[in-house]
Amino acid sequence: MYSGIFISTESAVVAVFYSFFVGIVIYKTIKWGNIPEILLNSALFRSHFIYNKR
Protein backbone atom coordinates (compact mmCIF):
# COMPACT_ATOMS: atom_id res chain seq x y z
CA MET A 1 0.00 0.00 0.00
CA TYR A 2 1.27 3.45 -0.92
CA SER A 3 0.60 6.40 1.34
CA GLY A 4 1.74 9.40 -0.72
CA ILE A 5 -0.29 12.56 -0.73
CA PHE A 6 0.40 13.49 -4.38
CA ILE A 7 1.66 11.84 -7.51
CA SER A 8 4.65 13.51 -9.17
CA THR A 9 2.64 15.67 -11.57
CA GLU A 10 0.35 16.90 -8.81
CA SER A 11 3.31 17.72 -6.59
CA ALA A 12 4.78 19.86 -9.39
CA VAL A 13 1.54 21.85 -9.55
CA VAL A 14 1.57 22.28 -5.78
CA ALA A 15 5.17 23.52 -5.98
CA VAL A 16 4.22 26.11 -8.62
CA PHE A 17 1.32 27.44 -6.55
CA TYR A 18 3.50 27.48 -3.44
CA SER A 19 6.22 29.46 -5.22
CA PHE A 20 3.61 31.95 -6.49
CA PHE A 21 2.29 32.31 -2.93
CA VAL A 22 5.77 32.87 -1.51
CA GLY A 23 6.67 35.35 -4.25
CA ILE A 24 3.44 37.33 -3.97
CA VAL A 25 2.59 37.23 -0.26
CA ILE A 26 5.82 36.65 1.66
CA TYR A 27 8.62 38.23 -0.41
CA LYS A 28 6.37 40.60 -2.40
CA THR A 29 8.64 40.30 -5.45
CA ILE A 30 5.85 39.25 -7.84
CA LYS A 31 3.10 41.75 -8.59
CA TRP A 32 -0.33 40.68 -9.83
CA GLY A 33 0.21 42.60 -13.06
CA ASN A 34 3.38 40.62 -13.81
CA ILE A 35 1.71 37.21 -13.74
CA PRO A 36 0.56 37.19 -17.41
CA GLU A 37 4.08 38.11 -18.54
CA ILE A 38 5.60 35.41 -16.32
CA LEU A 39 3.22 32.77 -17.71
CA LEU A 40 3.90 33.86 -21.31
CA ASN A 41 7.66 33.75 -20.81
CA SER A 42 7.39 30.32 -19.21
CA ALA A 43 5.31 29.00 -22.11
CA LEU A 44 7.70 30.40 -24.71
CA PHE A 45 10.73 29.00 -22.88
CA ARG A 46 9.13 25.56 -22.59
CA SER A 47 7.95 25.51 -26.21
CA HIS A 48 11.52 26.07 -27.33
CA PHE A 49 12.50 22.70 -25.85
CA ILE A 50 9.41 20.92 -27.14
CA TYR A 51 9.62 22.01 -30.78
CA ASN A 52 13.35 22.43 -31.34
CA LYS A 53 14.50 18.83 -31.16
CA ARG A 54 17.79 18.02 -32.83
TrEMBL record:
Chain segments annotated as transmembrane: 6-27
Superkingdom assignment: Bacteria
Segments forming domain TRAP C4-dicarboxylate transport system permease DctM subunit: 1-43
UniProt keyword list: Membrane, Transmembrane, Transmembrane helix
This protein's name: TRAP transporter large permease subunit
Organism: Aneurinibacillus thermoaerophilus
